[in-house]
Protein backbone atom coordinates (compact mmCIF):
# COMPACT_ATOMS: atom_id res chain seq x y z
CA UNK A 1 0.00 0.00 0.00
CA UNK A 2 1.05 3.62 -0.44
CA UNK A 3 2.50 5.04 2.75
CA UNK A 4 1.76 8.47 4.22
CA UNK A 5 4.64 10.94 4.36
CA UNK A 6 7.02 10.04 7.12
CA UNK A 7 5.90 6.46 7.52
CA UNK A 8 8.07 3.47 6.78
CA UNK A 9 7.65 2.73 3.06
CA UNK A 10 5.30 -0.14 2.32
CA UNK A 11 4.81 -2.33 -0.70
CA UNK A 12 3.10 -0.33 -3.48
CA UNK A 13 -0.57 -1.03 -4.11
CA UNK A 14 -0.80 -3.56 -6.94
CA UNK A 15 -3.44 -3.03 -9.61
CA UNK A 16 -4.53 -5.58 -12.21
CA UNK A 17 -5.96 -3.90 -15.32
CA UNK A 18 -8.15 -6.16 -17.50
CA UNK A 19 -9.17 -4.62 -20.83
CA UNK A 20 -8.84 -5.59 -24.49
CA UNK A 21 -8.46 -1.99 -25.74
CA UNK A 22 -4.69 -1.31 -25.93
CA UNK A 23 -5.07 2.48 -25.74
CA UNK A 24 -7.07 2.28 -22.52
CA UNK A 25 -4.62 -0.18 -20.96
CA UNK A 26 -1.72 2.08 -21.94
CA UNK A 27 -3.39 5.17 -20.46
CA UNK A 28 -4.19 3.37 -17.22
CA UNK A 29 -0.72 1.87 -16.87
CA UNK A 30 0.97 5.25 -17.45
CA UNK A 31 -1.30 7.09 -15.00
CA UNK A 32 -1.12 4.41 -12.32
CA UNK A 33 2.66 4.03 -12.49
CA UNK A 34 3.03 7.81 -12.32
CA UNK A 35 1.21 7.60 -8.97
CA UNK A 36 3.50 4.83 -7.73
CA UNK A 37 1.15 1.88 -8.19
CA UNK A 38 2.49 -1.49 -9.32
CA UNK A 39 0.53 -2.54 -12.42
CA UNK A 40 -0.17 -5.81 -14.23
CA UNK A 41 -2.33 -5.98 -17.36
CA UNK A 42 -4.38 -8.68 -19.09
CA UNK A 43 -6.26 -8.49 -22.40
CA UNK A 44 -8.63 -11.42 -21.87
CA UNK A 45 -10.45 -13.19 -19.06
CA UNK A 46 -8.38 -16.36 -18.92
CA UNK A 47 -5.10 -14.44 -18.61
CA UNK A 48 -6.69 -12.16 -16.03
CA UNK A 49 -7.71 -15.05 -13.78
CA UNK A 50 -4.23 -16.56 -14.03
CA UNK A 51 -2.56 -13.23 -13.23
CA UNK A 52 -4.87 -12.58 -10.30
CA UNK A 53 -3.96 -15.95 -8.79
CA UNK A 54 -0.25 -15.45 -9.39
CA UNK A 55 0.16 -11.76 -8.49
CA UNK A 56 -2.51 -11.23 -5.79
CA UNK A 57 -3.46 -7.66 -6.73
CA UNK A 58 -4.83 -5.22 -4.15
CA UNK A 59 -7.47 -3.94 -6.58
CA UNK A 60 -8.73 -4.91 -10.06
CA UNK A 61 -9.96 -2.67 -12.88
CA UNK A 62 -12.09 -4.82 -15.20
CA UNK A 63 -13.72 -4.21 -18.58
CA UNK A 64 -16.84 -6.34 -19.10
CA UNK A 65 -16.43 -6.72 -22.88
CA UNK A 66 -13.58 -9.20 -23.13
CA UNK A 67 -12.85 -11.33 -26.22
CA UNK A 68 -12.99 -14.76 -24.57
CA UNK A 69 -15.61 -14.44 -21.81
CA UNK A 70 -17.99 -11.94 -20.29
CA UNK A 71 -16.53 -9.80 -17.53
CA UNK A 72 -19.28 -10.93 -15.16
CA UNK A 73 -17.91 -14.47 -15.45
CA UNK A 74 -14.46 -13.13 -14.53
CA UNK A 75 -15.98 -11.48 -11.43
CA UNK A 76 -17.65 -14.75 -10.43
CA UNK A 77 -14.39 -16.63 -10.96
CA UNK A 78 -12.52 -14.18 -8.74
CA UNK A 79 -15.18 -14.16 -6.05
CA UNK A 80 -14.79 -17.91 -5.70
CA UNK A 81 -11.55 -17.30 -3.79
CA UNK A 82 -10.81 -13.61 -3.20
CA UNK A 83 -12.46 -10.46 -1.82
CA UNK A 84 -10.13 -8.12 -3.73
CA UNK A 85 -11.95 -4.89 -4.71
CA UNK A 86 -13.15 -4.95 -8.34
CA UNK A 87 -13.81 -1.71 -10.21
CA UNK A 88 -15.77 -2.38 -13.40
CA UNK A 89 -14.96 -0.23 -16.43
CA UNK A 90 -17.47 -0.69 -19.25
CA UNK A 91 -19.31 0.89 -22.16
CA UNK A 92 -22.52 -0.79 -20.99
CA UNK A 93 -24.81 1.85 -19.51
CA UNK A 94 -28.05 0.04 -18.65
CA UNK A 95 -29.07 -0.25 -15.01
CA UNK A 96 -29.71 -4.00 -15.34
CA UNK A 97 -26.17 -4.64 -16.56
CA UNK A 98 -24.72 -2.55 -13.74
CA UNK A 99 -26.78 -4.46 -11.18
CA UNK A 100 -25.68 -7.79 -12.70
CA UNK A 101 -22.01 -6.85 -12.33
CA UNK A 102 -22.48 -5.50 -8.81
CA UNK A 103 -24.54 -8.54 -7.85
CA UNK A 104 -21.76 -10.83 -9.09
CA UNK A 105 -19.38 -9.14 -6.66
CA UNK A 106 -18.05 -5.94 -8.26
CA UNK A 107 -17.50 -3.00 -5.91
CA UNK A 108 -18.00 -0.08 -8.27
CA UNK A 109 -18.93 0.64 -11.88
CA UNK A 110 -17.51 3.36 -14.16
CA UNK A 111 -18.93 3.83 -17.65
CA UNK A 112 -16.86 4.64 -20.72
CA UNK A 113 -15.86 7.26 -21.70
CA UNK A 114 -14.52 8.16 -18.29
CA UNK A 115 -12.42 10.86 -16.67
CA UNK A 116 -9.06 9.61 -15.42
CA UNK A 117 -9.28 11.69 -12.22
CA UNK A 118 -12.67 10.19 -11.34
CA UNK A 119 -11.48 6.65 -12.07
CA UNK A 120 -8.40 7.10 -9.89
CA UNK A 121 -10.55 8.54 -7.07
CA UNK A 122 -12.88 5.55 -7.28
CA UNK A 123 -9.88 3.21 -7.24
CA UNK A 124 -8.43 4.89 -4.15
CA UNK A 125 -11.81 4.66 -2.41
CA UNK A 126 -12.08 0.94 -3.23
CA UNK A 127 -8.62 0.30 -1.77
CA UNK A 128 -9.41 2.30 1.38
CA UNK A 129 -12.63 0.36 1.97
CA UNK A 130 -10.73 -2.92 1.70
CA UNK A 131 -8.09 -1.99 4.27
CA UNK A 132 -8.35 -3.48 7.77
CA UNK A 133 -9.95 -1.30 10.41
CA UNK A 134 -7.20 0.13 12.66
CA UNK A 135 -7.19 -0.95 16.30
CA UNK A 136 -8.34 1.16 19.19
CA UNK A 137 -11.96 1.68 18.22
CA UNK A 138 -14.59 1.66 20.96
CA UNK A 139 -16.45 -1.32 19.52
CA UNK A 140 -15.31 -3.58 16.72
CA UNK A 141 -17.56 -6.58 17.38
CA UNK A 142 -21.31 -5.99 17.16
CA UNK A 143 -23.57 -8.79 18.35
CA UNK A 144 -27.25 -9.36 17.64
CA UNK A 145 -29.51 -12.24 18.58
CA UNK A 146 -29.04 -13.68 15.09
CA UNK A 147 -25.49 -12.86 13.97
CA UNK A 148 -22.18 -11.20 14.91
CA UNK A 149 -20.31 -8.55 12.92
CA UNK A 150 -16.54 -8.23 13.45
CA UNK A 151 -15.66 -4.85 11.95
CA UNK A 152 -11.90 -5.27 12.40
CA UNK A 153 -11.68 -8.70 10.80
CA UNK A 154 -14.40 -7.89 8.24
CA UNK A 155 -16.25 -11.09 9.15
CA UNK A 156 -19.83 -12.02 9.90
CA UNK A 157 -20.82 -15.08 11.89
CA UNK A 158 -24.18 -16.81 12.22
CA UNK A 159 -24.97 -20.02 14.10
CA UNK A 160 -21.28 -20.61 14.69
CA UNK A 161 -20.34 -20.35 11.00
CA UNK A 162 -18.85 -17.60 8.85
CA UNK A 163 -21.30 -15.94 6.49
CA UNK A 164 -19.83 -15.24 3.09
CA UNK A 165 -20.59 -11.70 1.91
CA UNK A 166 -19.54 -10.01 -1.31
CA UNK A 167 -17.40 -6.87 -0.84
CA UNK A 168 -20.37 -4.67 -1.70
CA UNK A 169 -22.63 -6.47 0.77
CA UNK A 170 -19.96 -6.01 3.42
CA UNK A 171 -19.55 -2.28 2.68
CA UNK A 172 -23.29 -1.73 2.95
CA UNK A 173 -23.47 -3.71 6.19
CA UNK A 174 -20.49 -1.83 7.63
CA UNK A 175 -21.99 1.60 6.99
CA UNK A 176 -25.28 0.56 8.60
CA UNK A 177 -23.65 -1.13 11.61
CA UNK A 178 -21.42 1.88 12.28
CA UNK A 179 -24.62 3.95 12.41
CA UNK A 180 -26.60 1.55 14.63
CA UNK A 181 -30.00 2.95 15.49
CA UNK A 182 -29.66 5.92 13.12
CA UNK A 183 -31.39 6.41 9.78
CA UNK A 184 -28.89 6.38 6.92
CA UNK A 185 -30.28 8.12 3.86
CA UNK A 186 -30.42 6.46 0.46
CA UNK A 187 -28.07 9.01 -1.12
CA UNK A 188 -25.54 8.68 1.70
CA UNK A 189 -25.54 4.90 1.40
CA UNK A 190 -25.13 4.98 -2.35
CA UNK A 191 -22.26 7.45 -2.21
CA UNK A 192 -20.44 5.72 0.63
CA UNK A 193 -20.74 2.25 -0.89
CA UNK A 194 -20.67 2.89 -4.65
CA UNK A 195 -19.00 6.27 -4.97
CA UNK A 196 -19.61 10.03 -5.19
CA UNK A 197 -21.37 10.00 -8.56
CA UNK A 198 -24.17 7.77 -7.27
CA UNK A 199 -27.26 9.07 -5.52
CA UNK A 200 -30.41 8.00 -7.34
CA UNK A 201 -29.81 4.30 -8.08
CA UNK A 202 -32.11 3.12 -5.29
CA UNK A 203 -32.59 -0.21 -7.06
CA UNK A 204 -29.00 -1.08 -6.05
CA UNK A 205 -29.97 -0.65 -2.41
CA UNK A 206 -33.07 -2.81 -2.79
CA UNK A 207 -31.04 -5.62 -4.36
CA UNK A 208 -28.33 -5.59 -1.71
CA UNK A 209 -30.61 -5.09 1.27
CA UNK A 210 -32.61 -8.12 0.12
CA UNK A 211 -29.39 -10.14 -0.05
CA UNK A 212 -28.27 -9.06 3.43
CA UNK A 213 -31.66 -9.94 4.86
CA UNK A 214 -31.63 -13.32 3.16
CA UNK A 215 -28.20 -14.12 4.57
CA UNK A 216 -28.57 -12.65 8.06
CA UNK A 217 -32.20 -12.21 9.13
CA UNK A 218 -34.04 -15.08 10.82
CA UNK A 219 -37.13 -14.08 8.83
CA UNK A 220 -36.09 -12.04 5.76
CA UNK A 221 -39.73 -11.20 4.94
CA UNK A 222 -40.12 -9.58 8.38
CA UNK A 223 -36.69 -8.10 9.16
CA UNK A 224 -35.82 -7.00 12.68
CA UNK A 225 -32.28 -5.76 12.03
CA UNK A 226 -32.32 -4.14 8.58
CA UNK A 227 -35.21 -1.72 8.66
CA UNK A 228 -36.53 0.19 5.64
CA UNK A 229 -37.72 3.76 6.15
CA UNK A 230 -39.80 4.14 2.96
CA UNK A 231 -38.58 6.91 0.68
CA UNK A 232 -35.80 7.90 3.10
CA UNK A 233 -33.27 5.16 3.73
CA UNK A 234 -32.37 2.28 6.03
CA UNK A 235 -31.58 1.69 9.69
CA UNK A 236 -29.71 -1.09 11.49
CA UNK A 237 -31.14 -2.24 14.81
CA UNK A 238 -29.73 -4.87 17.14
Provide the descriptors you would attach to this structure in a database record.
alpha/beta; 2 domains; Sig_transdc_resp-reg_receiver; OmpR/PhoB-type_DNA-bd; disordered N terminus; 39% helix; Rossmann fold; DNA-binding; Arc Repressor Mutant, subunit A; five-stranded parallel sheet; globular; four-stranded antiparallel sheet; 238 residues
General description of the model:
With 238 residues, the chain is an alpha/beta fold. Helix content is 39%, strand content 20%. Helix 2 packs parallel to helix 3 and helix 6 packs across helix 8. The chain folds into 2 domains: 14-130, Response regulator (Rossmann fold, 3-Layer(aba) Sandwich); 141-236, Arc Repressor Mutant, subunit A (Orthogonal Bundle). It is globular, with a radius of gyration of 18 Å. It has helices spanning 22-34, 45-55, 71-79, 95-104, 116-130, 167-178, 186-194, 202-216, and strands at residues 14-18, 38-42, 59-63, 86-90, 108-111, 141-143, 148-150, 155-158, 161-162, 183-185, 226-229, 233-236. Mean pLDDT is 86; it is low at 1-9 and 133-137. Residues 139-238 form the OmpR/PhoB-type domain. It comes from Streptomyces ziwulingensis.
Amino acid sequence: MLSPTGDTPRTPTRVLVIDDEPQIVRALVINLKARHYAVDAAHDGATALQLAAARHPDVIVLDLGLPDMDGVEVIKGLRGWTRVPILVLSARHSSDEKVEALDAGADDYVTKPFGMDELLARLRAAVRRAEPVPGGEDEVVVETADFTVDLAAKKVGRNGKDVRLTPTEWHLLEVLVRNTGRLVGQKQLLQEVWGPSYGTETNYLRVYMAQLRRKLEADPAHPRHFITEPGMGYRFER
